From TrEMBL:
<dbReference type="GO" id="GO:0016491">
    <property type="term" value="F:oxidoreductase activity"/>
</dbReference>
<protein>
    <recommendedName>
        <fullName>Nitrite/Sulfite reductase ferredoxin-like domain-containing protein</fullName>
    </recommendedName>
</protein>
<dbReference type="GO" id="GO:0051539">
    <property type="term" value="F:4 iron, 4 sulfur cluster binding"/>
</dbReference>
<keyword id="KW-0411">Iron-sulfur</keyword>
<dbReference type="Pfam" id="PF03460">
    <property type="entry name" value="NIR_SIR_ferr"/>
</dbReference>
<keyword id="KW-0004">4Fe-4S</keyword>
<dbReference type="InterPro" id="IPR051329">
    <property type="entry name" value="NIR_SIR_4Fe-4S"/>
</dbReference>
<dbReference type="InterPro" id="IPR005117">
    <property type="entry name" value="NiRdtase/SiRdtase_haem-b_fer"/>
</dbReference>
<feature type="domain" description="Nitrite/Sulfite reductase ferredoxin-like">
    <location>
        <begin position="19"/>
        <end position="66"/>
    </location>
</feature>
<keyword id="KW-0349">Heme</keyword>
<keyword id="KW-0408">Iron</keyword>
<dbReference type="InterPro" id="IPR036136">
    <property type="entry name" value="Nit/Sulf_reduc_fer-like_dom_sf"/>
</dbReference>
<keyword id="KW-0479">Metal-binding</keyword>
<keyword id="KW-0560">Oxidoreductase</keyword>
Length: 280
């Protein structure tokens, strides 16, 4: 077992890199309002290297930011907060929620956007969960199989429009109602936080606990087969635009089709919903 706390970066806990400070901004399910992206690109142009970096968890990073003593200066923090991508300073490091990018737009068994939004609200509303490790990850697959083989701490895979099976570390958990799923996932996170203890050697992941966090259940036969990453190009519900190297430059951003919201994917791309689609 490691003997150090995780150092996943955030706005208030940047990573000190050779080219300056690096920060990460969490997106719930990769959902990114275009206005927020435009503002973030302006912040990067003013304070960083001008680009926005996409992560494997469908989050965003900026590099080369100025700071003092390993912390961002107040003007940079204020500029980043003005994007709207820092809704909770106390919980910024734990809002790690990966969701099937096309959910609610095309395919899948259920729209998981309301579930992920509710889960985010529950996380940010519980002071205990502000102390989750920054590595702790929720993965929500809407039943299409695109994220079923993605390593997770707590998650679910939709079995129908009304039910999902929980994922608990490396094991399968109970079959639950979609309407209760966010609460069940938040409860798992709270149970993990209580079980892991404290100190530099506390586990980062559920799979590292010495005992199962919940009863292990057999995989439901309705679970989908893995479908693999979303291909680039036209796809049901929109288009998946590749971002080479995960580096979104201002020029690339300007070339994206016009839409009010984009979805950052965990495959170095951006899903652009069809223009006629609307968000809940």
């Amino acid at each position: 077992m490691r003997a150090r706390a995780d150092r996943c970066p955030g706005v208030l806990r940047p990573w000190v890199a050779d080219d300056g400070l690096l920060v990460r901004l969490r997106l719930v399910g990769g959902r990114l309002p275009v206005a927020a992206l435009e503002r973030l690109l302006r912040v990067s142009a003013e304070f960083a290297d001008g680009s926005v970096y996409l992560t494997k968890r469908a989050n965003l990073q900026l590099r080369g930011l100025p700071g003092h003593g390993g912390q961002l200066t107040p003007d940079v923090v204020a500029a980043l907060a003005s994007t709207g991508l820092l809704p909770s300073r106390s919980h910024e490091l734990v809002r790690n929620i990966l969701v099937s990018p096309q959910t609610g737009y095309a395919g899948g068994r259920v729209d998981l956007r309301p579930v992920s939004a509710r889960l985010d609200a529950l996380l940010c509303g519980d002071p205990r969960l502000a102390h989750l490790p920054g590595r702790f990850l929720f993965v929500l697959d809407d039943g299409r199989g695109d994220l079923i083989d993605r390593t997770t701490d707590a998650g679910l895979v939709a079995l129908s429009g009304a039910q999902a099976q929980l994922r608990i570390g490396e094991n399968w958990g109970a079959v639950v109602a979609i309407s209760d799923a966010a609460e069940r996932l938040a409860a798992l996170a709270a149970a993990f936080q209580a079980a892991r203890g404290s100190g530099p050697d506390a586990p980062w992941h559920i799979r590292e606990l010495p005992n199962p966090l919940a009863p292990v259940i057999a995989a439901d036969p309705r679970l989908p087969a893995p479908s693999g990453p979303l291909p680039y190009g036209p796809v049901p519900g929109g288009s998946h635009v590749p971002v080479p190297g995960g580096i979104l430059t201002p020029e690339q951003a300007r070339s994206l089709p016009v839409h009010t919201e984009l979805v950052v994917t965990p495959w170095q791309g951006v899903f652009i919903p069809d223009a006629q689609e609307t968000n809940p």
